[in-house]
Amino acid sequence: MKFSAAWFAFIFIFAVAVISRAEDVPHVHDEAKAIVKTLASRYYWGRGYTKHGMEKAADYLEQAVTDLGLAPLDGKNFRQPFEYPVVTFPGRMDVRLNDKLLVPGVDYIVDEGTAGGIQTGDLVAKDASTFTNAAGDVTIKLKDKLTWSVESQQMKTNAIYVDRAKFKEPLTKFAFDIETKFVPHYRANNIAAVVRGTVQPDKYFIFTAHYDHLGGMGDKTYFPGANDNASGDSLLLTLAKYYQAHPQPYSIAFIFFAGEEAGLIGSKFFVEHPLIDLKKVRFVMNFDLEGTGEQGAMIVNATEFPNEFSTLRKINDEGHYLVQIGSRGKAANSDHYYFTEHGVPAFFMYTMGGIKAYHDVFDRSATLPMTKIDDVFALTLKFGQAIAGEAKAP
User: Fold this and answer.
1) In whole numbers, what is the pLDDT of the chain averaged over residues?
2) pTM recorded for the entire structure
3) CB under 8 Å to 116, separation ≥6 — which residues?
């Protein structure tokens, strides 16, 4: 992407305006921690597809940006609606193996696309970790780590994954009662807001994070999603609060995506139906998994944009924010991906270390330290400053 002389001039204005505020970077830990606690609570039910979890989260975020005084990105509505198919688990979730009743999410997870229903029978070992019934339409697999996800297509068979540590004896019998519901047109919304620029409001930096998670597996078990990605949402909201109080010469947009866990659906929809001219976007910074940082952070797309990555790493080295900034190449593993596929430069940053809970019921706010969120916040602000300072040079 090429930039005009006017763009470089505008960036210089930005550098002068924002550098004076470096000493005013606030501490956001307590506020961010409170946001994570809220979004990862039982009320939002994993910000997924049952008990109106994702809808409630969208309501929360829309109210939050409204209260902060931000404007809708398109000038009309904070919500960008779209639809996609998804398999849901709204009710019964009872599984027994060898006559032992298992705890959902702790002892086992069902395959995200499992057919469900009521069934009993005997099991035959296929290998040390796999057991099936005689008909071959039920599979039980022993796993060392139970990691759940979201599926858009429903199987005609059933698969259940069980914590290997729960069974030392061979599996011989099964019984389950699993309620599923396939929703062909699940309605979701991206939430998109902006702080308008004071000099060139048609130029943009964009901060993004997905707010959806896995939702519930049955009517008693939900996946809180504190690190993934209530932590990223908390970072966006605290950034939005800062920039609303300190408008910049360019516009700063904040987009909370839905459908990330189902396959980056919300961000893909956005870039295919953009609310602004994507050619006017200087950079996108996507945040996902921001609740740790004891071992530093990783930047996806670092090799795609080496100049910006070098700048970010230099800032970190000089400011001693994180112990390291790692480099990864291109990957379709979060909402930055479709921006770069459409010619918009973007990074995806995630923090490393600390609690290892991921896509499981243990990703809770109570055990998520958020110890480095102040440093990630400050690093983000200074990264914007540095890009501006480099861009003004011929």
Assistant:
1) 93
2) 0.92
3) 89, 110, 158, 178, 179, 180
